[in-house]
Amino acid sequence: MTVTFKDVKADLLDKIAQGIMAPGTLMPNEMDLAERYGCARATVNRAMRELADEGIVERKRKAGTRVRKAPIRQARFSIPIVREEIESKGSEYRYALIDRTLQDVPDWLRGRLALKPGQEVVRVVCMHWADGIPYQHEERWINPEIVPAVLEADFSANGPNEWLLAEVPFSNAEISFMAVEATQDLADHMGCFAGNALFRTERTTWLKETAITFVRLTYRRGHRMTTRY
Amino acid sequence: MTVTFKDVKADLLDKIAQGIMAPGTLMPNEMDLAERYGCARATVNRAMRELADEGIVERKRKAGTRVRKAPIRQARFSIPIVREEIESKGSEYRYALIDRTLQDVPDWLRGRLALKPGQEVVRVVCMHWADGIPYQHEERWINPEIVPAVLEADFSANGPNEWLLAEVPFSNAEISFMAVEATQDLADHMGCFAGNALFRTERTTWLKETAITFVRLTYRRGHRMTTRY
DNA sequence: AAGTGGTCTAGACCACGAC
DNA sequence: TCGTGGTCTAGACCACTTA
């Protein structure tokens, strides 16, 4: 059996985890490792590159590869579509549109989306339920310049999230997580009390350099967002 | 100039973003693309593999590569050390130990850490300030079986986080984000009112299959955790 | 100046899985 | 069955960065 990059990676990881290669240690260069493992340099390169991508080691030309003293601990979150999130738990998904208006972009949002004063945006407010229990409150603003079809879109049956995913192929985004105290209005929708702590995510989505949408997702009381890394 | 995998990747991304390759589209196979771009198949492979890693496309042997209908939107968070987080904002970092005890593992934690009843754990409570303002409250339990040195460790000058990072080289973890209402005790420490909504992360860290530590980090009111993707 | 990683190439073999 | 991606190889050139 030939030595694969996964073999090399696993062995290096093991040596790091066992403390044989302590944080700060300078690792052998690719050529030496290739010889030691009996494989090509490209194989070692792939293994070490992945370790670097994962923040375990740090690579510099000429300086070599070192085990990171303080590994960059990074978590990867997949941002699910709420329908799938609910249905994957075996719950019944329900959706309702609360409000849909065309309005001048509010000042606080103008900066975020880099829009001109007086420009119009579509604001959509809706709710998502799991087994009839409030799950998530969604408040969204959409820039109709990029997605003109939003002016015709009817969000009474399906949420704007799924609609946008189908309409806009690919985008980059900025996302924030925070805790908020429920307003009376939010509390009414979420079936909790005003002032209760709720978990919220805010996301601004861009296509190239122009903002498409800003969304505020507020989850029911006690919601946790979890991941492994 | 030769064609690099970044060139290929950027061009493919562009075609996807422009809708030339719409979601669901079957992309040409690696050999054809290599010929079209005038490069080796390995170059195309690297470009497409990275697109797959980022959740933009989906690859299956024999079936080929498709643009994902619903791209896996995933965010990468780097989990910073509090001290660095604060100092990188140009603020002055301050730390204080609140409590340090050796106690029987509480029932609710036993399951999380997979410990035996009656086993002892070290509990550390401490605070982190930025410019003298409460920034983060830390409550941590450490398994002394894995890190016996914790029994001798004195956390009066430095937080257990940095200490653990130096002691335990590498680990995997599960992390959760949530919103909580401040208890009176928390409120006293954080300089807010009981009931205020606070952002909290909880993290369980493992070395191989054994739990090292469970930590509960509660941030000051209004804190946001932000990332781009 | 010189060593290290970054990448490309051309060819090869193989495993998966759709047909 | 057989096309597609997954990976390895051996060699090469280059860019960065530090000594």
**CATH topology grouping of the largest domain in chain A:** Chorismate lyase
Shape estimate of chain A: elongated
- Proportion of residues in extended strands of chain A: 35-45%
Number of helices of chain A: 7
Query: CATH homologous superfamily of the largest domain in chain A - what is it?
Result: Chorismate lyase-like
What string gives the helices and strands of chain A in order?
A: HHHEEEHEHEEHEHEEE
CATH architecture level-2 label of the largest domain in chain A? 3-Layer(aba) Sandwich
Q: Please list the strands of the largest sheet of chain A in the order they lie side by side.
A: 4-5-6-9-8-7
The most extensive interface, with participating residues per chain, is: A-B, 52 and 52 residues
Described by strand count, sense and barrel closure, the largest sheet of chain A is: 6 strands, antiparallel
Helix % of chain A is 25-40%
The first-level CATH class name of the largest domain in chain A:
Alpha Beta
Seen as an oligomer or otherwise, the chain set is homodimer
Q: What ranges of chain A have pLDDT less than 50 throughout 5 or more consecutive residues?
A: none
The gyration radius over C-alpha positions of chain A equals: 24 Å
Find the count of extended strands of chain A (DSSP E, 2+ residues).
10
Give the CA-CA distance, first to last residue of chain A: 30 Å
Which class do the helix and strand fractions of chain A yield?
Answer: alpha+beta
Overall domain count of chain A: 2
